[in-house]
User: Fold these one by one.
Assistant:
Number 1:
Amino acid sequence: MAEPAASLTKSNGQDGRPRHVAIIMDGNGRWAQNKGWPRLVGHRRGAERVKQIVRACPDLGVNWLTVYAFSTENWKRSTEEVLGLMKIFARYIEREADGLSAEGVRMRFIGGRERLDAKLQRLMAGIEARTAVNSRLNLTVAINYGGRDELTRAAERLAGRIARGEIENPTEADLESCLDTAGHPDPDLVIRTSGETRTSNFLPWQAAYSEYEFTPTLWPDFTPEHLAEILDRFGLRERRFGGA
Ligand code: IPE
Ligand code: IPE
Ligand code: MG
């Protein structure tokens, strides 16, 4: 019998609270456009929200927070919007580094890095190294992330290990160990803001048994109070993982 992925045997968080929350932060563009402002204003406001949510997580019992910041499909947007977003990511890392370190946040990134500019890549590696000892909150930011891209890269790594004779009959755990999220627990809960009810290539492997919450609130309007309310509701859910 095939060995189950380690992730499916992991616990569901304590006291019915999700330990790992993942968020598809959607609706920045519409938020700005509704006010007659450029889309980038919405992205800047969205980044401010990330700071607040990050600060709120530990007190809400959330130990892992994964946020979708830029997908492999988002390169289709205008050059102005893409470059503006990249600047926002770089500035977030530069300005938040001290605060995140002081607050015990460990920051990591998932997604393909080679397409990002060299300065941003340096900032990402720098803050990962600087915060590596922290554990109060594990913050993972998905930049140039796509689940299909991640699985394709993972398949390539796995094939390499098989070719080198390190693995004979690959298991789910072997593939999992080749993902960008190797060693991270699976998300218990995935939240998407802005009323869209699709997953848009976010964590297809990791969220196989996650609970989902879709809220009409646009990301720049999403507050720690909204998050707290969703987390309370999560406690009422029964997760069965295929059991009877
Ligand atoms: C989410 O907001 C942020 C990114 C995808 C980078 P959007 O920019 O997708 O906002 P809407 O969906 O157009 O309102
Ligand atoms: C998903 O939002 C990606 C991020 C939030 C970073 P999109 O706005 O790109 O998704 P679609 O295009 O509506 O599916
Ligand atoms: Mg969107």
Note: The CA atoms of residues 114 and 121 lie 8 Å apart.
Number 2:
Amino acid sequence: MKLIAGNSNRPLAEAIAAYLDTPLTKASVRRFADMEVFVEILENIRGEDVFVIQSTSYPANDHLMELLVTLDGLKRASARRITAVIPYFGYARQDRKTGPRTPISAKLVANLIVTAGANRVLTIDLHAGQIQGFFDIPTDNLFAAPVFAKDYFDRLGKGPTTVVSPDVGGVLRARAFGKRLDAELAIIDKRRERAGDSEVMNVIGDVSGRRCILVDDIVDSGGTLCNAAVALMERGAASVHAYVTHGVLSGGAVARVSASPIVDLVITDSIVATEAVRMSRNVNQSSIAPLLGEAIKRISDESSVSSLFD
Ligand code: R5P
């Protein structure tokens, strides 16, 4: 097995390499003067089972292009099998036509990854489960839920808890997480009655006096999460905590979360922590390196990955 790290998340790649006790293959990713990406694999990989670890996180286009040219280089160097390990799959929110003359970019990116040379994909918490089907190659979509559930039981313990989906689109994810925690379910229904009017947050379910756990796949501007937390507190929640797989946290998102009623937000390391995340008072990372490492090991051994979903 060979592990190759792109530039998007070196700490996660190194943690996966440590878990597998396998060094990262030497590769160089360079830029020409006009910023074109050039990748060179510096070790023989002919006939090898190769795993390329690269999130298509900010700057998304650069990291995506880096992944594509790396896959192409590996294919042309006669790797036996190439797995694109994409802890954070960007462009996932563009997974359907939202209006006339708009692209389905998630499908386009999936096509690019397959055309570039990937034989398999390993990822975690795709924005929508059906994106798995955008790839016409085997794709394992792991869940961060077991990692989050462990953190919950270690740190927060049992108690009257309600798992809350901050929008209608996340209900399945919240219901599954609630089952793991043996918790109730609540759903936030965001609505704008008229264009220009402020958002009305309807909370469906019992949150009064309960510890509320918001779960989501992505926190980007932090707006969805922070507005949900305010709505829950206004309806008498005892406290609000959050688990979100991908900490995109653009712009002033960390400051927004810090100023919100959220006691703590746990994200994974699918995206490398910014300085703001590292310094934050209430944002913490839980590592998915062992989960991804174990999945890579099992894919390489041709053994089952299904128990990793438990
Ligand atoms: C939306 O469907 C996603 O699941 C997230 O809720 C959304 O991307 C979060 O974005 P933001 O943090 O900018 O509100």
Note: The CA atoms of residues 77 and 92 lie 30 Å apart.
